[in-house]
Amino acid sequence: MNPQPLTFSQWGRSYLSVAPVTGVIVLACIAAWTATAVQSLSLSNSYYGSSLAHDWTLLGPLVADGGYARPLGAMFMHLDASHLMMNVLMLVFVGREVERAYGAGLYALSYLAGGLGSAAAVLAQDFDTPTVGASGALYAMMVLLVGVYRKQRLNLRAPLALILANLAYTFMSPGVSLWGHVGGLVTGVILLGALSLPHQTARWIAVVGVVLTSVGAVALGAGLWG
């Protein structure tokens, strides 16, 4: 007897039981985009008519002027439905594997560090350019996926090809945040070193250290260039 296919709600519950942090991040991104669509009364041009999108955009002068939540909010904000879906699909598949391998707590901190490291790079190198999206944090997660494959003694071609394909897209596509992606990638490499330490306590201490360093880099970027 063939098993019945899962309904969407059953799949969602199953996914949340395996990767709860990733599920919450995905839902937060969808909720943020939905709010912008409602505010702007547009599905295709939701970003530009939304006060929430304005308040959650990473932009150096506004961060320096007291918008300290912007580097965090920008991680959940997207320009339009296609931008959202591209990042959410990547997060659903990559995030699940990374969260399962390293655990919910370390994964949540690593995702935060990746997003903030990405924001710090933008503030340092592209201060006056508005930036939104989860892709900076996703670049960090793609690097950690390489670590997952290495840990499980799997062929590294797939995760490395994923990173290279995304880097190629970054360099070839106008309007894509080069420094946001580079910042996430570099932070991911640092996180991979932290998560490769032999003892769990050492991994926690190291990852918390990366988070705090990312926070400091954001503050430095805003103050230095503001």
UniProtKB/TrEMBL annotation:
It is found in: Membrane. It holds the Pfam family Rhomboid. It comes from the Bacteria. InterPro entries: Peptidase_S54_rhomboid_dom, Rhomboid-like_sf, Rhomboid_protease_S54. The chain crosses the membrane at residues 12-35, 75-94, 106-125, 131-149, 156-172, 178-197, 204-225. One of its GO terms (cellular component) is membrane. It is a multi-pass membrane protein. Residues 70-192 form the Peptidase S54 rhomboid domain. GO terms for molecular function: serine-type endopeptidase activity. This is Peptidase S54 rhomboid domain-containing protein. It comes from Corynebacterium phocae.
